Amino acid sequence: MAGTPPSRSRVLILGGGLSGTLAAAALAPHGIGVDIVERHALPDTPRARRGLPQARHAHMLWSGGADAIESLLPGTLEMWLGAGAHRIPIPNGMVSFSPGGWYRRCWPEAQYLISAGRDLVDWAVRTRALALPGVRLLSGAEPVRLLGTRTRVTGAVIRHQDGTEEVREADLVIDATGRASRAPSWLAGLGIPVVPETVVDAGVAYASRRYKAPVDTAGWPVINIQVDARLAGPGSGGTILPIEGGEWMVSLAGTRGGQPTSAASQFLAYARNLRSPLIAEFLDRTEPIGPVTVTRNTANRRRHYEKIRVDGFVALGDSATALNPIYGHGMSAAAQGARALRELASTSDITSKGFARRAQRAIARPAAAAWLLAVGQDAAFPRAIGKKPTLADRAATKYVNRLVTTACSDFTVVEALTDVMTLQASGSGLAHPRVLLAAIRGPRLPPLAGPALTPAEQAVLLGRPAPTPTPTPTPTSTT
């Protein structure tokens, strides 16, 4: 670390990952100096870094998150696409087998997602955030405890790689250290009441592997076999994401009692035993280019910081609300939380009494929407641990299942579900009269007998030279 940094920061961000750099992007434009404390070295290229094991798994950045990031850091979307990421339209850019059946792909674009490796996503955000005036990165350092009183956090003690400790005071401390955050115990050490916590754990494990795509990935769809919580026994699903470098990122997931393993010899067999063997059929046409990696720390964990009264401290991203990655909402919820933080800081002084609590409530709103989507499914699995579904929860789940089935042949419902899934709209949109009427009416067309594939996609399965796919394919349905 070059030089000796000052012993005071206006804002001290603990953690230099996606949430931490987005928090810096939210506050720096207001003329607020920001110091980011990060334990590991952060690369200046889109490559793997220590401390981010989830980067080895498939990540979908929904449009609600991508738009939030672009508003915080204009030009980030261009950086992603220029480095090989894909902008995939929804629903026509997805071959998706939902619990209600195969989705049609003849509809117009409702939303989109960014498909890329996590290292690329983080690199672009980090590059643009660290270029902002007033943002400094303190790498090779980690927080060891918070400073303050029962009513206000005033800084943190930082330990450097040489073992020396530094007391760093701050007007605002933001915890962005992720799932493994020790902030609850640090706050307890200051005499602050225990942070209420809610956990729902379906016991999901992820096994992922990179493959060399057998075709040009430009215009290639996401292939998604969704988990169906209504079936007896463990749930399982999988995804093929086209990412940069002409690769497919393939992730398979299973709940408690039916989890995939790290054994390379079992990866393809697990894919073949999903609700549809489509993923395995595509993988038969290509070769892996890396080992199988497994992650099991996937519980939904919500720390209700908005319910405690303490100034000078805010938690963002997984530190506050960690979501089961199977639904792909973690990055998007963090981005929308950072955007909410920026909006509050534009009208309130960060040192004002109650700022932290107002900020935490603003951050919690988009996270709560993603939380309901995740736990509504996970709590339904028979071996899930944590909060059990209430009668109202079961009624809501039954209604959503009706919508999912209807969406296979009704664009009104497809659009409403897509807006909610991408975090572009709240769940209240599913109660719009048009959507309610469509749900009552039910499916308007018979279900597809198989996936709606383009000629290029079918050619890959048949082992033939594939025509060049177009960015917005016109699928041929298998009926």
Explain the layout of strands and helices.
Blueprint lengths: L7 E7 L3 H10 L6 E5 L21 E3 H10 L3 H7 L3 E5 L3 E5 L2 E2 L8 E5 L2 H13 L4 E5 L1 E8 L4 E8 L4 E11 L7 H7 L7 E5 L3 E8 L9 E4 L10 E8 L3 E8 L9 H9 L5 H6 L9 E3 L4 E4 L9 E3 L5 E2 L7 H16 L9 H24 L6 E2 L4 H17 L3 H11 L11 H9 L13 H7 L18
What would you say this structure looks like, in words?
There is one protein chain. With 479 residues, this protein is of the alpha+beta class. The chain folds into 2 domains: 8-59 and 120-200 and 299-375, FAD/NAD(P)-binding domain, CATH 3.50.50; 89-112 and 205-295 and 390-479. It is built from 13 helices and 21 strands. It has helices at residues 18-27, 63-72, 76-82, 118-130, 183-189, 264-272, 278-283, 330-345, 355-378, 391-407, 411-421, 433-441, 455-461, and strands at residues 8-14, 34-38, 60-62, 86-90, 94-98, 101-102, 111-115, 135-139, 141-148, 153-160, 165-175, 197-201, 205-212, 222-225, 236-243, 247-254, 293-295, 300-303, 313-315, 321-322, 385-386. The strands form 4 sheets. Strands 1, 2, 8, 9, 10, 11 and 19 form a 7-stranded mixed beta sheet that branches. The chain is globular. Mean pLDDT is 91; it is low at 1-6 and 472-479.
